[in-house]
């Protein structure tokens, strides 16, 4: 029996020699030639005879899918899937899966690390000392402060527990709130406008779409408390960077921690030049534990779908629009 042909795109997976070896024993592999997320134009020449894709933060559009007649599964190496055209994939009988929970703790810990780093100005103080300085500038403590979490999903919940351990009050907004969990963990649910007005620290954990694009806009930045700390470990495009740069410059924003950008790697922007704006290269899921968990789960999803195992249907995110295929790969009416 011929091995399926798999396109492997995530850069951290491609660096995982043990997982690549295990995957190569079961499939013919095509590896990411660019070492970064691939664009629509870069994907099209790679997918013509591909059976499955291990996908990162790549633009898998309807145009890409139209050039992939053999494709049966797109296995997302991570949780988000907004860069995959779910509707088009479903119409073509292509299942899209993800790895819920595999990187939850890792992303939550980075969000909290960025809060601490911004509050205590750790990167700037470290850089100054290494260049001969000895600044005794004051930072802020997080104990007793109010954390506003926008998006109380798995990562938002994990972040809540970390913040509670630091004696923080937690308020949250989520359009699909788990109210029982919020009550049990002492989280006050509020509107986005109430949250930005009441929080000392704001952390974003929502997908980027038409409804959330620039949800942290000039109006909401103006409504925030003086000295606010703003964290984004979710997706680029949630914050209006032009407006945010003005509020960093005038001191209203104490500090920012950004792990996600509208284009990755990001284009230069004056926001990133401030010492109190900490930027990391979308590394929230890049811990040994999370990488291993995402790799194992995404590979299991890939072969589970290729093998028509119904046990893996729970990880299909486009179930409602998915047209099924038979054993020969033919679309069922």
Record the SSE blueprint.
Layout: E1 5-8, H1 11-14, H2 17-24, E2 28-31, H3 40-43, E3 52-55, H4 62-66, E4 73-76, H5 86-91, E5 95-97, H6 104-120, H7 122-130, E6 146-150, H8 154-165, E7 169-173, H9 179-184, E8 188-189, H10 192-198, E9 201-204, H11 218-223, E10 228-232, H12 241-249, E11 253-258, E12 277-279, H13 288-306
Parallel strand pairs: 1-2, 1-3, 3-4, 4-5, 6-7, 6-9, 7-8, 9-10, 10-11, 11-12
Helix pairs in contact: 6-8
> What is the approximate shape?
globular
Assembly level? single chain
Largest sheet: 7 strands, parallel
Flag low-confidence runs.
none
* N- and C-termini, Cα separation: 27 Å
Helix content: 25-40%
Sequence of strands across the biggest β-sheet: 8-7-6-9-10-11-12
Structural class designation: alpha/beta
**Total beta-strand segments:** 12
Q: CATH class of the largest domain, please?
A: Alpha Beta
Helix count equals 13
- Count of spatially separate domains: 2
What is the correct CATH architecture of the largest domain? 3-Layer(aba) Sandwich
In terms of DSSP E residues, the strand content is 5-15%
User: CATH topology of the largest domain, anyone?
Assistant: Rossmann fold
Rg calc: 21 Å
* Helix/strand order, N-terminal first: EHHEHEHEHEHHEHEHEHEHEHEEH
The averaged pLDDT comes out at: 94
CATH superfamily of the largest domain: NAD(P)-binding Rossmann-like Domain
């Amino acid at each position: 029996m011929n091995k399926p042909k798999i396109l492997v795109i995530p850069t951290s997976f491609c660096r995982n020699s043990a997982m690549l070896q295990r995957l190569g024993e079961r499939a013919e592999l095509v590896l990411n030639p660019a070492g970064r997320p691939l664009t629509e134009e870069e994907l099209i020449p790679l997918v013509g005879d591909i059976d499955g894709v291990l996908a990162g933060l790549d633009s898998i559009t309807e145009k890409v899918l139209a050039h992939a007649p053999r494709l049966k599964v797109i296995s997302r190496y991570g949780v988000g899937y907004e860069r995959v055209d779910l509707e088009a994939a479903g119409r073509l009988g292509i299942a899209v899966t993800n790895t819920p929970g595999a990187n939850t703790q890792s992303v939550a810990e980075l969000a909290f690390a960025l809060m601490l780093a911004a509050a205590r100005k750790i990167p700037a103080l470290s850089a100054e000392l290494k260049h001969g300085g000895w600044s005794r500038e004051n930072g802020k403590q997080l104990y007793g402060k109010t954390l506003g979490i926008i998006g109380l999903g798995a990562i938002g919940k994990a972040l809540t527990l970390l913040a509670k351990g630091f004696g923080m009050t937690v308020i949250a907004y989520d359009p699909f709130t788990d109210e029982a969990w919020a009550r049990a963990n002492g989280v006050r649910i509020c509107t986005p406008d109430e949250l930005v007005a009441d929080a000392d620290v704001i952390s974003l954990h929502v997908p980027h779409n038409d409804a959330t694009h620039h949800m942290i806009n000039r109006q909401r930045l103006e409504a925030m408390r003086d000295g606010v700390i703003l964290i984004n470990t979710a997706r680029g495009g949630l914050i209006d960077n032009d407006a945010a740069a003005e509020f960093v410059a005038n001191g209203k924003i104490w500090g920012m921690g950004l792990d996600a950008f509208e284009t990755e790697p990001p284009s230069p922007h004056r926001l990133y030049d401030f010492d109190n704006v900490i930027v990391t290269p979308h590394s929230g899921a890049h811990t040994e534990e999370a990488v291993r968990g995402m790799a194992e789960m995404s590979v299991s999803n890939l072969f589970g779908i290729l093998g028509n195992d119904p046990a893996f249907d729970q990880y299909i995110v486009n179930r409602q629009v998915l047209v099924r295929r038979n054993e020969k790969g033919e679309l069922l009416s």
